[in-house]
């Protein structure tokens, strides 16, 4: 996961949505904040727009920090073993799963206004 995260983070920080899409298992599931909100499938054409919107979202109104700020400040993912599922890692609003093709983004959690 560490090596994948370095490549994924580099792509995000460079704004390379084509690379982010290649590092995803499509369709990526876009979950809402609440369990009863619909799960939206994100295709290769819709993922870049949704992902850019996610990056701009301010997650901490007290500090004004965005999701992009948190990714920038996370050179290595902090994995809490209490919340880890074998073959799956959640880093803030992003979920990655390991499959035959290695680690891939599989789920993102959209904000309250999306």
Overall description:
With 114 residues, the chain is of the alpha+beta class. The protein has one domain. It has helices spanning 2-14, 17-22, 47-56, 67-72; strands at 24-31, 40-42, 58-60, 65-66, 88-91, 94-99, 102-109. A 5-stranded mixed β-sheet has the order 2-1-7-6-5. A hairpin with an 8-residue loop joins strand 1 and strand 2. The protein is globular.
Search tags:
114 residues; two-stranded antiparallel ribbon; five-stranded mixed sheet; 7 strands; alpha+beta
What does this entry show, briefly?
By secondary structure, the chain is of the alpha+beta class.
CA(first)-CA(last) distance:
29 Å
**What is the overall number of helices?**
4
* Total beta strands: 7
Largest sheet composition? 5 strands, mixed
Structural class: alpha+beta
Mean pLDDT score, rounded? 91
Strand order of the biggest β-sheet: 2-1-7-6-5
- Whole-number radius of gyration? 13 Å
What percent of residues adopt helix (DSSP H or I)? 25-40%
Question: Spans with pLDDT under 50 lasting ≥5 residues?
Answer: none
Beta-strand residue percentage: 25-35%
The ordered H/E elements are HHEEHEEHEEE
What count of structural domains? 1
**Principal-axis shape:** globular
In terms of topology, how is this protein built?
Elements: H1 2-14, H2 17-22, E1 24-31, E2 40-42, H3 47-56, E3 58-60, E4 65-66, H4 67-72, E5 88-91, E6 94-99, E7 102-109
Parallel strand pairs: 1-7
Antiparallel strand pairs: 1-2, 3-4, 5-6, 6-7
């Amino acid at each position: 996961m560490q090596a994948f995260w370095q490549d994924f983070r580099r792509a995000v920080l460079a704004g390379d949505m084509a690379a982010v899409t290649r590092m995803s298992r499509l369709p990526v599931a876009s979950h809402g904040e609440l369990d009863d909100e619909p799960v939206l499938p994100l295709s290769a054409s819709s993922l870049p727009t949704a992902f850019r919107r996610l990056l701009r979202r301010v997650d901490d109104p007290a500090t004004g920090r965005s999701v992009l700020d948190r990714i920038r400040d996370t050179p290595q993912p902090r994995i809490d073993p209490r919340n880890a599922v074998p073959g799956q890692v959640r880093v803030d609003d992003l979920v990655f799963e390991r499959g035959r093709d290695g680690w891939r983004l599989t789920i993102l959690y959209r904000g309250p206004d999306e």
